[in-house]
């Protein structure tokens, strides 16, 4: 069932139901999927902050990287007539929920905290529905990273890869040395994460925008997209046979403990390195994925607010204000691997990967290299994103040709 139908059915049901499961006043219930080591540490900071303000935290955590399970749980809760206070919903999906009339207006918090002045437009636009704030941004994650264990490179006699040729050369050497070249988890969202970095690295930001954001049929089926799938096919040969179903943080752990050399993943992976006590630039390297150093795929986490009863609105606004506070944006993102979404947060405590991310975001926002992550729900609506993700997963798990994949991709881009 589509979101629209679900919500329509829900509204009808809710009218008939007694609202028995609503949260108490001075309590917030927050749906998220931050359950890995680094993620859990990050969200614990928000809980602590809310409790210090006298607001109880009801945790609604649903495991599953990329959030697909969490979104299913959210729909079920909305159907049951008991939406949480806030949920980790991102990008165009915020508009999809907004259209259903179930989101809360949090302009009061935004006005008080001067959000318009403190957020880049690319962030604040996503947080608003019809000109009103309905979501609070938590961070900016960059997706086009390659995480590397320098000891593995050294043992394999490989050099730090700066482009595709060097990347495959390093992968060959790591494989020959008896280690796993590319740590990966065979789950559709992880496949899509690798795919988008490869498309960006093979075709550049303009190609990415035309093909993956604008879904231009000629770009989706043309030679650059074929080359993207050819490159993906080559990458597949460096992934170990146990990858199917593996969680992303377990793949990151393989790089951390030197079982594998490299991983394509957004910088929530850095949260795992940090939680394991590893130091950026020494124990691990954060490189832009091959061919993507002039680009930045952004993925903005945000807590989207649902309509709540009058007595709970105060706690909801407290949550929104806490999320946007410089104190929270600092401590959360130090743990999460991302960078603050807002201006006015000191850089002092952030590591070299975060500083690179901050600088690159600024530079790419001027050069045109700043692009929304498709794999993380920032680029296109959920129906199309889901259909495209299915094609990529099929390609990763079968002997589908690149030619067949691009045709299927163009068809998926028309999904409604
Ligand atoms: C979210 C991150 C999360 C990651 C793994 C991404 O889509 O934006 O916050 O850490 O998925 O679950």
Provide an overview of this structure.
The structure is a single chain. It is built from 19 helices and 14 strands. With 416 residues, it is α/β, with parallel strands linked by helices. The protein has two domains: 3-139 and 300-357, Periplasmic binding protein-like II (D-Maltodextrin-Binding Protein, domain 2); 142-298 and 359-412, D-Maltodextrin-Binding Protein, domain 2 (3-Layer(aba) Sandwich), CATH 3.40.190. It has a five-stranded mixed β-sheet with strand order 2-1-3-13-6, with helices on both faces. Mean pLDDT is 95; it is low at 14-20. Bound molecules: beta-D-glucopyranose (BGC).
Question: Quick gist of this model?
Answer:
The protein has about 425 residues and is of the alpha/beta class.
Please give the structural blueprint.
Blueprint: H1 3-16, E1 27-32, H2 37-52, E2 56-61, H3 68-79, E3 86-88, H4 92-99, H5 107-112, H6 115-118, H7 121-127, E4 128-129, E5 132-133, E6 135-137, E7 141-142, E8 145-148, H8 150-156, H9 164-176, E9 180-182, H10 188-213, H11 217-221, H12 223-236, H13 248-256, E10 260-264, H14 268-275, E11 285-288, E12 296-299, E13 302-305, H15 310-324, H16 326-336, H17 352-367, E14 370-372, H18 382-396, H19 402-412
Parallel strand pairs: 1-2, 1-3, 9-10, 12-14
Antiparallel strand pairs: 3-13, 4-5, 6-13, 7-12, 8-10, 8-11
Bound molecules: beta-D-glucopyranose.
Beta-D-glucopyranose (BGC) binds next to loops.
């Amino acid at each position: 069932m589509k979101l629209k139908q679900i919500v329509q059915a829900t509204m009808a049901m809710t009218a008939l139901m007694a609202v028995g499961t609503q949260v108490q006043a001075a309590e917030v219930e927050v749906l998220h999927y931050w359950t890995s080591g680094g993620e859990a540490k990050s969200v614990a900071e928000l809980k602590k902050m809310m409790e210090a303000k006298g607001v109880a935290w009801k945790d609604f955590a649903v495991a599953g990287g990329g959030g697909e399970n969490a979104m299913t749980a959210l729909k079920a809760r909305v159907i049951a007539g008991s939406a949480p206070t806030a949920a980790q919903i991102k990008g165009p999906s915020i508009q999809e929920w907004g259209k259903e009339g179930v989101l809360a207006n949090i302009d009061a918090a935004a006005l008080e905290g001067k959000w318009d002045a403190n957020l880049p437009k690319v962030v604040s636009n996503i947080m608003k529905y019809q000109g009103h704030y309905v979501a609070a941004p938590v961070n900016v994650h960059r997706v086009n990273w390659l995480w590397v264990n320098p000891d593995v490179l050294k043992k394999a006699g490989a050099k730090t890869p700066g482009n595709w040729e060097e990347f495959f050369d390093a992968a060959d050497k790591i494989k020959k040395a008896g280690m796993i070249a590319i740590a990966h988890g065979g789950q559709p969202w992880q496949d899509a994460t690798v795919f988008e970095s490869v498309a960006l690295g093979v075709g550049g930001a303009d190609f990415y925008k035309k093909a993956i954001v604008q879904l231009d049929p000629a770009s989706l089926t043309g030679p650059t997209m074929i080359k993207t799938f050819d490159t993906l096919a080559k990458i597949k040969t460096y992934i170990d046979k146990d990858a199917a179903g593996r969680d992303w943080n377990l793949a990151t752990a393989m790089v951390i403990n030197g079982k594998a050399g490299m991983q394509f993943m957004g910088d929530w992976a850095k949260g795992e390195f940090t939680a394991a006590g590893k130091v950026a630039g020494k124990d691990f390297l954060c490189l832009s994925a091959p061919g993507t150093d002039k680009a930045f795929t952004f993925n903005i986490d945000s807590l989207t607010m649902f309509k709540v009863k009058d007595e709970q609105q105060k706690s909801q606004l407290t949550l929104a204000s806490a999320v946007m506070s410089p104190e929270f944006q600092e401590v959360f993102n130090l743990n999460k691997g991302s960078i603050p979404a807002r201006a006015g947060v000191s850089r002092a405590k952030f590591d070299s990967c975060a500083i690179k991310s901050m600088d690159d975001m600024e530079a790419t926002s001027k050069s045109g290299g700043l692009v929304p992550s498709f794999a993380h729900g920032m680029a296109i609506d959920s129906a199309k994103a889901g259909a495209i993700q299915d094609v990529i997963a099929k390609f990763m798990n079968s002997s589908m040709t690149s030619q067949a994949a691009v045709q299927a991709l163009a068809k998926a881009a028309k999904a409604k």
